[in-house]
Amino acid sequence: MSAVTGPLLPLHWPDASDEVAADPGPAPVQRFTGRTVVVSGGGRGIGRAVALAFAREGARVAVASRTTAQVDRVAAELRAAGADAVSLTCDVSSAAQVRATVRAAADRWGPPDILVNCAGVFSMGPSESTDEADARELFDTNALGTLLMCQEFGRTMLEQNHGRIVNFASLLSFTAFPQRAAYAASKGAVLQLTRVLGVEWASRGVRVNAVAPGMIRIETPHPAIAAGSLDEDEIVRRIPMGRRGRPEDVTGAVLFLASDEAAYITGQTLVVDGGWLSYGYL
């Protein structure tokens, strides 16, 4: 047997580019007609894409964020496309605002069927000098905010014996990047929260799952790339699919987990990263 020399896998997969056009795929099916969906963090980026995707499949959509102007724009965009949509101002770290959001959605359409917890914040820096205020904001929004949303919406869903919750974890729920101690810990909490609620509420008609996006290209640069601590070309070379993800790559996973097609799935986190986490070659 001849010896194997050189790298077992390339550092860059050829014929792949961030500029490759997304496959539009088949026309949307109306899997969510008559369903009410609440999307936190829906004012921009992946959250906006999630809201649009549910609307295309017939859902009534409440777009929630602490930034009123952003969710007003997205809700107007949905209504202009013919969807039934409303904007709700909500800071997910405030239990009072979360309760008000549940009431507002229920008053308009009845008890919500689906909750997508996309609201989140990001921060990075040397772990030994992480600012206490920054760390508290990370945990209050990413971890506590997800818990409060799950609790308040979950109570209504449990009363109906029906509901689907999709949380947003992260690659850092599974692995470690330097200078992201507080962020990684907050997203690790989301992973475990999803597991606990997924098994605790399974017999009561409520499924709880999560997605963990990888390096997704959105309208604003990733903070680490903007700060110069990450090189975008190196990131792309590290992704087996040879490109950064698009918001639409994540929405398919969210819609699947919220749909009847995932009726026997709960407590799971679906990684959407182009193969990053599985790829062990550096």
Structure description:
- The chain has one domain (36-272): Rossmann fold, CATH 3.40.50.
- 40% of the residues lie in helices and 13% in strands.
- The chain contains eight helices and seven strands; from the N terminus they run E-H-E-H-E-H-E-H-E-H-E-H-H-H-E.
- The protein has a seven-stranded parallel β-sheet, sandwiched between helices.
- Helix 4 (132-160) links the parallel strand 4 (114-117) and strand 5.
- The longest helix has 29 residues, at 132-160.
- The model is unreliable at 1-21 (pLDDT under 50).
Which ranges are low-confidence, i.e. pLDDT below 50, for 5 or more consecutive residues? 1-21
Our Rg estimate from Cα atoms comes to: 19 Å
State the CATH superfamily name. Answer: NAD(P)-binding Rossmann-like Domain
The number of helices is 8
InterPro entries: KR_dom, NAD(P)-bd_dom_sf, Sc_DH/Rdtase_CS, SDR_fam
Family: Belongs to the short-chain dehydrogenases/reductases (SDR) family.
Domain Ketoreductase: 35-205
Keywords: Oxidoreductase
Keywords:
single chain; 282 residues; alpha/beta; Rossmann fold; seven-stranded parallel beta sheet; 7 strands; Sc_DH/Rdtase_CS; SDR family oxidoreductase; SDR_fam; oxidoreductase; NAD(P)-bd_dom_sf
Structure, briefly:
The chain has 282 residues and is of the alpha/beta class.
Write the layout of secondary structure elements.
Blueprint: E1 36-40, H1 45-56, E2 60-65, H2 68-80, E3 85-89, H3 95-109, E4 114-117, H4 132-160, E5 163-168, H5 181-200, E6 206-213, H6 223-226, H7 232-238, H8 247-258, E7 269-272
Parallel strand pairs: 1-2, 1-4, 2-3, 4-5, 5-6, 6-7
Keywords: Oxidoreductase
Protein name: SDR family oxidoreductase
Family: Belongs to the short-chain dehydrogenases/reductases (SDR) family.
